[in-house]
Amino acid sequence: MDKLKLVKTTVFILTFLLIFGTLCILGLFYQKTHGRNTETPQQISLKQPIGSYVKEMRADNGKLYILTVGGGQEDRIIIFDAASGRVEATASIN
Question: What is the largest CA-CA distance in the chain?
């Protein structure tokens, strides 16, 4: 009788581990295919001359407005689209 209980307990535990492991693997596959993109660019070039620096930055509706000064040019605002990772426009400030 004790051997039968041991076998039943072992089968129950192994079944639980099998189902739990399968659900974990399916969850990981779902995250990789449907999860949000977790890749972030390590470095983004704004293509500004040497000596330029960011003085101020603001975000609005997925766009970054970056006030850049120096580099032998007038102060300018760079409009950067965060979703595409590209510079949309550059406007000089007089």
Answer: 92
